[in-house]
């Protein structure tokens, strides 16, 4: 290895994690990341005399990595058509799942109705704890309460919501908190 090749290899190693990150982003499947990174290294060294190693090489490495990923993807799909078929089926199933109604759509609707029927203070507790992800000590400070009082109040609210949902689902009618 001549001095310029050694310098190119050292520069590549300095940016190895960057190249791996770009490769992972563009790899069609995770196992291909290492293949892409190795191929970029080989191509970078092969053409090292063309690069200005004093300049920032990250844009060059990013472009090389994207191109190698595309090339490897084309080669793999050409030689492995079953992979393309599996990928197409997977995408189709994901699209069907997205378009299908949620299996808990009725329960969520009933929960919303039950939440609306709660007193304002109880709705505020639910909002802070479940939607805003505020802990019981912080809620206690905000509402000038003790933390154990907040815990008991949340427990009572959960019980009321559970009863309301059960009544509504069993009766098939409107929710009553």
Terminal Cα separation, in Å? 78 Å
Which of globular, elongated, flat, extended, rod-shaped describes the shape? elongated
Please report the number of helical segments: 9
Secondary structural class: mainly alpha
Biggest sheet architecture? none
Q: What letter string, H or E per element, gives the SSE order?
A: HHHHHHHHH
How many β-strands, per DSSP? 0
Strand content: under 5%
> Overall mean pLDDT score?
83
Q: Give the class-level CATH name of the largest domain.
A: Mainly Alpha
Reported by name, the CATH topology of the largest domain is Rna Polymerase Sigma Factor, Chain: A
Task: Provide a short characterization of the protein structure.
By secondary structure, this protein is mainly α. It has 9 helices and no strands.
